[in-house]
Every structure is written in structure tokens, then in C-alpha cells.
Amino acid sequence: MPINSKFVKDYSGKEDLIGQLMDAIMKKEPCYTGYHSFYDDKGKNFRIDPLHFFENDGGLYILVNTTTFGDIRTLEVERIQDIKKTGESFEYPEDFDPETLLESAFDIVYGDPVKVKIWFSADQVRYIKERTWSKSQEIIDQEDGSIILIMETSGWWDVKKWVLSYGSGSKVLEPERLRNEIMDELEAARELYA
User: Fold this and answer.
1) CA–CA separation, 68 vs 35, rounded Å?
2) CA–CA separation, 78 vs 74, rounded Å?
3) Which end of the chain has fewer CB atoms < 10 Å from its terminal CB, N or C?
């Protein structure tokens, strides 16, 4: 079956870099990398231990242990500007299981676990109930046909973006911080249309 390439990211010109990263994973060789972070729109340089490639929604990602910062992060391959292998070697973390880690994330970014409680209107119920959003999810039916979804996941930004995609058909009940961030986003959007 052909892959739908409608939203596939363009990796032309990145073939050598991808090859070097694959080689570094196989040889367990640390690298120094230049990376463009969209979060703060800055170029950053840091040392990584490349651990695992994966694909998601037409994009190629790599899980790395950022020895500079001391944590495991997801890097988008197209934002890696350059790499320089060190010629050294690293020990693969014994407790690192990429599949388990990715299962705990809402989309591709994982982080500290967060328990969310989200109301969905009756017209959105069928879309919410047709998928499993988290292994820990609980769905509570309401008398008016709406539901409340309770789940523990990670990837704060991904959850926030997902809730916003349902517009007035969803409302975060908990945690309060996420609820407030979404209200701020909606207010900023409303001002754009005023």
C-alpha cells in the first residue's frame, strides 16, 4: 500500500546526516550537534548519545540522551543542522525502552506525567470513544450525552494542541494550569478576529 505523502516532511539534503546518526546509534558513539529549536527559535549546540529513530505523521525523529542537559529528548531530524562524531563510545542506558517511553507520550513529545480531565460535547463523543488515548483512560458518560475523559499522559504541548483542535466541543476541567493556558490561547485568538 503506498504511503500518503501529503504531509511528509522533506529530507532531501539530509541523507548524509541521517546516515551518520544511524552509524552513531549502531556504534554507540556520542556526537555534538547543532540544532534549531522552534520553541525559542534559537540554534543550540549540545552533546548527544543517539538512541532510537522513529517515524510519526510523515516526520523522522530521534530519541537522544542529551548528556549536556542530562535528560532524554526527542529531536526532529530536519532541525538538526550538523553533527560531529566524537570517536568515543557511550553505554546504552539499561532502563531505556523506547517503545514504552513513546507509549507514555500523548503524541511524540514526552515529559513529566500529567493527569488531565477533559469534558467533550455530545457531538464529539463518537470521535473520542473510537480511540484509545491513554492506557489509563477513563470515560464518564454524562446525562446530557457529553463525556468526561480522564487520563494520565505526558507531552503538555501536544495535549494542549489536541484540546484546542476541538474548539468549543471541549473544555479542560483539570489541571487548572492547562485550563488557564488554553483560556489564554483562546483569548489571544479571539483578539486576532476582533
Assistant:
1) 13
2) 12
3) N
DSSP label of 145 = S
Domains of the chain: 15-104 (2.30.30), 114-193 (3.30.70)
N-to-C CA span, the chain: 46
Q: What is the pLDDT of residue 51?
A: 93
Q: Which residue has the cell 522513529?
A: 54
- Per-residue model confidence as pLDDT tens digits over 118-141: 999 999 999 999 888 888 889 999
Residue ranges of the alpha helices (H) in 79-155? 98-104, 125-129
Among 67, 62, 170, 151, which Cα is nearest to 108's?
A: 62
Structural contact between residues 161 and 130, judged by C-beta atoms closer than 8 angstroms: no
Phi, psi of 135 (to 5 degrees): -60, -25
Let me know: does 105 contact 159? Beta carbons within 8 Å: no
Beta strands in the chain (DSSP E): 31-37, 42-56, 59-66, 71-76, 80-85, 114-120, 138-141, 147-153, 170-174
- By CB atoms closer than 10 A (0-12, 13-18, 19+), residue 78 is middle
Burial tier of 80 (Cβ tally within 10 Å: 0-12, 13-18, 19+): buried
Task: Please give the pLDDT value at position 179.
Answer: 95
Cα dist from 96 to 65, 101, 102, 125, whole Å:
10, 8, 11, 36
